[in-house]
Amino acid sequence: MTQPGYKIDIMATSLDAACDEYPSAFRGRQPSPMEGKSLVPILHGQRRTGHEIMAWNCSRGREIRTGQWKLVRHRDEPDRERYEISADGGEIRNLASSFPLRAQKMSEQYETWRQRVGAK
User: Fold this and answer.
1) Are residues 112 and 58 in the same domain?
2) In the prediction, which pLDDT does 41 show?
3) What is the Cα–Cα distance from 53 to 44, expressed in whole angstroms?
4) What DSSP string runs through the chain?
5) Can you give the residue range of the structural domain that contains 95?
6) Does the residue 49 lie in any domain?
C-alpha cells in the first residue's frame, strides 16, 4: 500500500499525534491554513486521503507530483522531465515528449501552486 507524503505533513502528523489542533489565530495574527495531512493513519496501517498534488521548489529545481506522475524541471533549464513513478520508480524514462498535454497541465498546476504559496 503506497501512500506518499511529504515535509508539509510533519506538522499535521505532530499535531494529530499530540491530539492538538492547528491555531486559527496566533499572537494577533491569522496563520495561513495548514496544508499538510496527518501520516498517523498510515502509521497505524490504515489508508488516508492523500494530496491531490504535491509540489516543491528547492535550490536544485522544481517538482510536482499528481498521482503516479511526476514532473521535474531542473534549476534554470527550460526542459521538463516527466516520469510515471509506479512503473519507473528510479525515474529513468523521461516521458515528457510522449505526453506533452499532461506535462503542460502539470506545469500549469505547478505555476498555480507557486503563485499561491509565494515560491520563486
Assistant:
1) yes
2) 94
3) 23
4) ------TTHHHHHHHHHTT----S-BTTB-PPPP-----HHHHTT------S-EEEEETTEEEEEETTEEEEEETT-S--EEEETTT-TT--S--TTTSHHHHHHHHHHHHHHHHHHT--
5) 54-117
6) no
- Asked if residue 59 belongs to a domain, the reply is yes
- Positive/negative CA dihedral, 96, 102, 106, 108: positive
What's the first-to-final CA gap in the chain, in angstroms? Answer: 34
Nearest to 5 by CA among 65, 61, 45, 46: 65
Q: What percent of the chain has pLDDT over 90?
A: 43
What is the spatial distance between Cα 4 and Cα 67, in angstroms, rounded to a whole number?
9
Confidence at residue 37, expressed as pLDDT on a 0 to 100 scale = 94
| Most confident option among 37-41, 90-94, 99-103 | 37-41
How many domains would you assign to the chain?
2
Is the same domain home to 111 and 84? yes
